[in-house]
Amino acid sequence: MCGIAGIVSACAGSAPDEAAVRAMISPQRHRGPDAEGYHVDAQTGVALGHCRLSVIDLSAGAQPMSNEDGTVWTTFNGEIYNFRELRDRLTQMGHRFATRSDTEVIVHAYEQYGARCVEHFRGMFALAVWDAKTRTLFLARDRMGKKPLYYHEADGRFYFASEPKAILAAIGKRPDADPVAIHHYLTWGYVPAPHSAFKGFRVLPPAHTLTWRNGQIHIERYWRLAYLPKRQESEEALCDELLARLTESIKLRLISDVPLGAFLSGGIDSSTIVALMSGLITEPVKTFSIGFEEQAYNELPYARQVAERYHTDHHEFIVKADAASILPDLVWHYNEPYADSSAVPTYYLAKMTRQHVTVALNGDAGDENFAGYARYVANRMAASYDRLPGGVRSGLQRSTSRLPRLGSFKSPAQRAKRFMEALADPADRRYARWIGYFTDDMKASLYTPEFQAAVGESDPVALLGQAYADAGDVDWVDRSMAADTALYLPGDLMVKVDIASMAHALEVRSPFVDHEFMEFAASLPSNLKLRGWKRKYLLKKAVRDLLPPELLSRRKMGFGIPIDQWFRSELRDMAYDTLLSSRAVSRGLFRPEQIRRLLDEHMQLRGEWQFHLWALLMLELWFQRFIDGASG
Fold it and tell me: How confident is the model at residue 453 (pLDDT cuts 50, 70, 90)?
């Protein structure tokens, strides 16, 4: 795992000096504290930088790395898990290797296959290749967006880096915020690619390549997850194949020259990873879990059951309400506004894990592969509702509108009310209401006229509509999973884990995100994932002999934190002082009376606005850190 950076001049013979690219590496050094390297060529007009977290070939994997004659260079962040197979194939084609690293495979694969080299890579990566002969810069990002990659053009130069603050360090200018990106953030809780909250910056989307030549940019998609055709084998045969494929994916991710372990939440996905991992290594698996003093959020007892069953070397950490003190650090590391509050426990989990190992496996994407979210049930029910006669639908909606808002946000009554209230919306806006933060009507009352004008006609929900369309002619279960795989998984979950882990120089690998495994999962009929009300049906059946029965039958808890309570206690003063400060009000984005209404209603138990308040708080802290000139 590493941090990468580079600058290319539009004109040959005017390369940036090394100080510029060193300035880009400096704020990313947490991503790669073991070593750093640079390649600057004034003749071709390029400067490349790299900071390294040494995991494979510790002695000879330094970057930037070139081919034999120095005409092709790469700086690369991630892991190519099938590098040994590729190295053997390329060697047979006449390429010569000087190291055992996966980095060198990228150089020779580019020589052999050009831009299509990424189609041969199985792993997580953000990479840059500089072809000195043609003055071509080639960027690529892995299929699911595990590794980040930003870029920016200014004053005849093209910049790229793992984090936007690296580009800010090179251009030396105070950035402006992009109102359209902020508009998207308030819908989704993250800024979706290709947008960036920094005006003029862009994010290369997952499964895309970018080619820069003579100042011209060409972006192309090289992979898309397909949900058709469907497999027809028996459940037993598919269970066997599922376990075999997942075991193979885990085995690939055990390649390491440094100690490794696993996150263990107590849920099915991470527990399955630990169970299978235990059968692949001789020593006890090192496992790491996070818990809370508030028992409604605490999964430690379930994690302990798995740890005891597989005799792991188990470690635990309790997150307390004073975790809010790390918010400035989170804002700095996440670079963009980011509203997923589970970043807090993930940050602490990564910190604890790094004290013992350098690499950890996790269970991300089990839900997106096997229909683990309750909203998939809701979307299927909504599709059935849409087929009812109009009069029946209207009657149900009128009845629901009269229901009082009683119980907590997660109570069955409130879930049912939110479900029915959304049914009148088109399918994409309905799903956005369920999974998003601020709805269109909330924004209408929150935005100032000036901010609404700056946002213009931009519609964040259009991204969801496009994801539905890209899924093809599939049912609503597959369509929901396809939308989450295209948006939520890379925009939220992958970002959360990459940033939290790399803040502590920890590499996290995700076997469920392996693209070959995901292709297999997508080919499974949806009724093997969602069987009636039973989510993850086939996965649970496949692992029934591996996990304690309690884990398979218990209600999904998720990785949330008690921010509803925190806002009414430790975070109360901070929320009022930050969101209603003269600095926040002077930005002219939001009507202060609406901000105060959300605060007051939540504090007085007249509403549950914790997720919205968290999103607003993280946004204002981001403004203060990056836009107000305090990003150093």
Answer: very high
Q: Which of 76-90, 289-303, 486-500, 561-575 has the lowest mean pLDDT?
A: 289-303
Residue 626: other Cβ atoms inside 10 A: 23
Structure tokens given for 130:
């500089």
Does the global pTM surpass 0.90?
Answer: yes
Strand partners, 130: 73, 137
Q: Which residues contact 555 (CB under 8 A, 6 or more apart)?
A: none
Return the domain boundaries, the chain: 2-221, 235-371+481-553, 562-632
Whole-number average pLDDT of the chain: 92
- Asked whether the predicted pLDDT for residue 178 surpasses 90, the reply is yes
Q: Which CATH homologous superfamily contains domain 2-221?
A: Aminohydrolase, N-terminal nucleophile (Ntn) domain (3.60.20.10)
Tell me if 21 sits within 8 A of 75, measured CB to CB: no
Predicted confidence (pLDDT) at residue 415 exceeds the cutoff of 70: no
Nearest of 152, 150, 140 to residue 113 by alpha carbon: 140
Asked whether 355 and 288 are in contact (CB, 8 A), the reply is no
Confidence of residue 382 (pLDDT cuts 50, 70, 90): confident
End-to-end CA distance of the chain: 23
> Which band of pLDDT confidence, cut at 50, 70 and 90, is reported for residue 75?
very high
Tokens linked to 514 = 């392996």
Look at the block and give the residue holding tokens 């305090």: 630
**Half-sphere exposure of residue 390: CA atoms within 13 angstroms, side-chain side:** 0
Distance of CA 343 to the CA centre of its chain: 11
Between 3.60.10.10, 3.40.630.30, 3.40.50.20, 3.40.50.620, what CATH number should domain 235-371+481-553 receive? 3.40.50.620
For 8, the token pair is 């290319």
Task: Tell me the β-bridge partners of 160.
Answer: 6, 151
Q: Please say whether the beta carbons of 164 and 336 come within 8 A.
A: yes
pLDDT digits (tens, 9 = 90+) for 115-148: 999 999 999 999 999 999 999 999 999 999 999 9
Which parts of 121-178 fold into alpha helices (H)?
164-171
Half-sphere exposure of 96 (CA within 13 A, CB side): 4
HSE of 319, CA atoms in CB hemisphere, 13 A: 31
Q: Which residues pair with 447 in a beta bridge?
A: 590
Q: How far is CA 491 from the centre of its chain?
A: 5
- Unique residue bearing structure tokens 């080619």: 211
Q: What is the pLDDT of residues 421-433, one digit of tens each?
A: 777 778 888 889 8
Q: Which region, left, alpha or beta, applies to residue 123 given φ > 0 means left and ψ of -120 to 50 means alpha?
A: left
Residue 609 predicted with pLDDT over 50? yes
Tokens 């020593």 label which residue?
283
CB contact at 8 A, 11 and 158? no
Q: What is the set of active-site residues? A: 2
Residue 388 pLDDT exceeds 90: no
